[in-house]
Design the sequence.
């Protein structure tokens, strides 16, 4: 695995790839270097058959306080366009394996948008979700208005985006923005446990199921049902489908191969 400056990467025995954002002094502000390293590590895990699911985390104080304001302060629209900023962020959506965000402390601006790009969120009791861009004269630009609105609905999203309303971990759980909340001492263990449980399942089915669920937010119901049907049929071409069903009938644990 490559040496990185802004992230720490660990490939675990339980088939979980763990990525820690590692700029603690800057609250894990997401500068371009960090985003490039994150993409590199995500791609490596996505291509690695020994990894079944990925966890992205920060530290107890901050998942991330957003894009690096220092690096953005002097930008103009033309420089922004040339920086391929959107590509740096949106490509994360191309990762096929499930990604779980383990969130503690500040999860703000681009940090919140990064968590929203993940497939599940495990929060510590201290997690705080927000889109405070309005305080510095901008608005969310990496999916915040769209993804939050899809999860929380219009009115709460408006309050968060227009008036820097923050959500506590419990509120996030209540509104469907987190899968579970755990004490700060164990939130990362909980996220890893969840990832390991998913990583033990049939890999191709997991990846196609992730794709189908994510497409629900982009397609009409008719198109989504059609995609689901095709992906469902496709799985009958895998050895894991044969093994899974045979194991059920033989009353034993399946041994999935990812084929
Ligand atoms: N960028 C750079 N540095 C940051 C930072 C950030 N977002 N957040 C915190 N820091 C730095 C602080 O400057 C400080 O550095 P030093 O002064 O020690 O050198 C250090 O982290 C500790 O921060 P504080 O001293 O402020 O600590 P506090 O505990 O008092 O406050 C805080 C923590 C997280 C509440 C506060 O730092 C804060 O409000 N931070 C800014 C939060 C924010 O406004 N976030 C939104 C940023 S804009 C796009 C992609 C992404 C984006 C947009 C478009 N495209 C694809 C088009 C994203 C935009 C954003 O995220």
Sequence:
């Amino acid at each position: 695995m490559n040496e990185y400056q802004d992230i720490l990467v660990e490939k675990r025995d339980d088939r979980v790839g763990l990525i820690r954002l590692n700029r603690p002094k800057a609250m894990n502000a997401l500068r371009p270097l960090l985003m490039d390293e994150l993409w590199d590590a995500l791609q490596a895990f996505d291509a690695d058959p020994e990894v079944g699911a990925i966890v992205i985390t920060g530290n107890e104080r901050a998942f991330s306080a957003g894009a690096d304001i220092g690096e953005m302060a002097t930008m103009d629209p033309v420089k922004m366009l040339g920086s391929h900023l959107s590509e740096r962020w949106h490509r994360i959506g191309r990762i096929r394996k499930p990604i779980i965000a383990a969130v503690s402390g500040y999860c703000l601006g681009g940090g919140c948008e990064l968590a929203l790009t993940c497939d599940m969120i495990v929060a510590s009791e201290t997690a705080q979700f927000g889109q405070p861009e309005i305080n510095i004269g901008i608005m969310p630009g990496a999916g915040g208005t769209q993804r939050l609105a899809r999860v929380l609905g219009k009115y709460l999203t408006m309050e968060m985006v227009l008036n820097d309303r923050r959500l506590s971990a419990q509120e996030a759980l209540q509104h469907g923005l987190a899968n579970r909340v755990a004490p700060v001492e164990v939130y990362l263990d909980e996220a890893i446990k969840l990832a390991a449980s998913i990583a033990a399942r049939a890999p191709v089915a997991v990846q196609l199921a992730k794709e189908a669920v994510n497409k629900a937010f982009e397609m009409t119901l008719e198109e989504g049902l059609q995609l689901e049907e095709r992906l469902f049929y496709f799985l009958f071409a895998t050895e894991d489908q044969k093994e899974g069903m045979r194991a059920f009938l033989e009353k034993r644990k399946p041994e999935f191969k990812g084929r």
Q: What stands out?
A: The pocket of 4-(N,N-dimethylamino)cinnamoyl-COA is lined by residues 26-27, 29, 65-70, 85-86, 89, 106, 108-110, 132-133, 135-136, 141-142 (CB under 6 Å). The chain has twelve helices and ten strands.
